[in-house]
């Protein structure tokens, strides 16, 4: 049976307890019932991470794969074999995969600029969709997809899985329990090495990726928006291209991708937030601080793209007598981290599978994806014009109205900044 209660990770959880949570997830994965069949469109780097995660969890069957690049498709088929799956079917295009009656749910893992077109190719199937982040590269396309999601007959979950990194699960559950009181300030940063190679190098061009803050940082704006609990009102950002890909060209076209930024966001409920990005760092470092009227929370993650350098995550919750006051190491065991993105990808698959069973949960919605893109897009606009931007003004000047029921994330509640 599929669990209706999703296990939460407590701040005091030990490694043994974390292993137990994953064991509980595994044993709840309907071993006797029919597993849903998944089809994956796009078997590049992320599509193959999903292959590993799906087969590691064992909740679903991997039925088939489709990719317009023969080498990627071959790598996808190999990945299924290496991960212990049955030989998958392959299809000529996304529509053929979507129309296969054995495919119950569709995972779209193609480059950002293709998401709208691929969605349009498969939407007639009405099957549940998992769509990788960012949902789109432009405000128009993001709004289109969020509106389509409102009338779509099945769940559409977005691939913003950073919210399930160990330290953020703990932080979000502490905030849900109101342990910090009313939130006033949020500070986030990411230091990491440059963008990795991609098929046809789409991530080196804003036109295909949506720009660095949309492409990479939608994860952080998703977290920031979720914690702030309100729409962004004003955004100021400074950044640009300092080090990476300054001489890079693909098929004669020079890369235009930014590699650093400082972003300040004022939310409509008075919450103040900042985000720092640096993509010319040797190692990975992420930190989050949330300041509430009753205390402060700090998380850190140290990780590496280099082999043999283990990752480390921790959280401190500094309210009087909190058990995590001096800090708790919350690094997931290797077994969970293997699932990709430090284990977070496994948790997002657990959410998606749970939604297929008709349950609602905290899987990232299209409304949340839309607002992550709006926040990132406003930061990019501010960087270009060199001054702060007013979110409602810019949206109105583009005749876009996302401040509407259904397009505003359900999780946003009025955060009384006067407390
Ligand atoms: N959630 C995360 O943490 C995370 C991490 C990395 C990438 N991503 C996202 O995953 C998506 C894919 O990224 P990637 O790193 O795997 O890129 P990639 O370049 O490694 O792979 C993309 C694959 O899609 C294929 N493709 C392109 N258009 C297609 C189409 N119309 N039909 C079928 N296949 C098509 C390409 O041939 C390629 O094999 C992007 O949206 C990216 O932003 C998410």
Please describe the topology of this protein.
Elements lengths: L14 H13 L9 E5 L3 H13 L3 E6 L3 H13 L6 E2 L3 H6 L5 E4 L6 H8 L6 E3 L7 H13 L4 E3 L7 H11 L6 E9 L14 H4 L2 H4 L2 H11 L3 E9 L8 E2 L2 E2 L5 E8 L4 E7 L5 E9 L2 E9 L8 E7 L9 E2 L4 H4 L6 H13 L9 H20 L3 E2 H7 L22
Parallel strand pairs: 1-2, 1-4, 2-3, 4-5, 5-6, 7-12
Antiparallel strand pairs: 7-13, 8-11, 8-17, 9-10, 11-12, 13-14, 14-15, 15-16
Helix pairs in contact: 2-3, 2-12, 6-13, 10-13
Bound molecules: nicotinamide-adenine-dinucleotide (NAD).
The site of nicotinamide-adenine-dinucleotide has 27 residues, from helix 2.
Task: Give an overview in words.
The structure is a single chain. The radius of gyration is 21 Å and the shape is globular. The protein is of the alpha/beta class and 419 residues long. The protein has helices at 15-27, 45-57, 70-82, 94-99, 115-122, 139-151, 166-176, 206-209, 212-215, 218-228, 334-337, 344-356, 366-385, 391-397, and strands at residues 37-41, 61-66, 89-90, 105-108, 129-131, 156-158, 183-191, 232-240, 249-250, 253-254, 260-267, 272-278, 284-292, 295-303, 312-318, 328-329, 389-390. The chain has 14 helices and 17 strands. The longest helix is centred in the last third of the chain and has 20 residues, at 366-385. It binds nicotinamide-adenine-dinucleotide (NAD). Nicotinamide-adenine-dinucleotide is lined by residues 41-47, 66-69, 72, 94, 109-112, 114, 118, 132-133, 159, 161, 198-199, 215, 341.
């Amino acid at each position: 049976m599929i669990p209706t209660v999703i296990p939460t990770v407590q701040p005091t959880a030990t490694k043994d307890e974390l292993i137990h949570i994953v064991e509980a997830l595994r044993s709840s994965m309907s071993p006797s019932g029919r597993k849903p069949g998944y089809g994956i469109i796009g078997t590049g780097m992320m599509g193959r991470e999903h292959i590993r995660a799906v087969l590691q969890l064992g909740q679903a069957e991997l039925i088939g794969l489709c990719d317009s690049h023969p080498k990627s498709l071959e790598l996808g088929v190999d990945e299924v074999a290496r991960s212990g799956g049955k030989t998958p079917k392959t299809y000529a295009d996304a529509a053929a995969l979507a129309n296969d009656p054995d495919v119950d749910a569709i995972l779209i893992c193609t480059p950002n600029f293709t998401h709208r077109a691929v969605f349009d190719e498969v939407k007639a199937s009405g099957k549940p969709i998992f769509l990788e982040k960012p949902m789109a590269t432009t405000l128009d396309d993001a709004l289109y997809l969020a509106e389509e999601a409102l009338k779509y007959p099945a769940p559409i979950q977005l691939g913003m899985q950073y919210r399930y990194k160990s330290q953020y699960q703990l932080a979000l559950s502490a905030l849900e329990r109101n342990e910090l009181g009313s939130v006033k300030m949020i500070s986030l940063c990411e230091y990491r090495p440059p963008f990795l190679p991609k098929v046809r190098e789409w991530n080196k061009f804003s036109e295909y990726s949506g720009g660095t803050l949309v492409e990479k940082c939608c994860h952080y704006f998703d977290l920031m928006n979720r914690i702030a609990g309100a729409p962004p009102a004003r955004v100021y950002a400074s950044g640009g291209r300092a080090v990476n890909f300054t001489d890079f060209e693909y098929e004669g076209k020079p890369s235009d991708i930014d590699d650093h930024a400082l972003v300040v966001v004022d939310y409509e409920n008075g919450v103040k937030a900042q985000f720092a990005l640096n993509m010319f760092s040797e190692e990975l470092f992420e930190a989050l601080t949330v300041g509430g009227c009753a205390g402060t929370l700090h998380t850190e993650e140290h990780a590496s793209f280099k082999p043999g350098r283990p990752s480390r995550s921790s959280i401190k919750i500094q309210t009087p007598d909190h058990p995590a006051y001096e800090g708790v190491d919350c690094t997931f065991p290797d077994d969970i981290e293997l699932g990709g993105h430090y284990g977070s990808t496994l948790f997002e698959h657990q959410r998606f599978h749970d939604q297929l069973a008709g349950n609602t949960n905290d899987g990232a919605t299209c409304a949340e994806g839309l607002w992550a893109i709006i926040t990132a897009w406003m930061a990019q606009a501010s960087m270009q014009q060199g001054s702060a931007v007013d979110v409602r003004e810019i949206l109105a000047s583009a005749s876009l109205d996302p401040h509407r029921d259904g397009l505003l994330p359900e999780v946003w509640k009025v955060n009384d900044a006067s407390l």
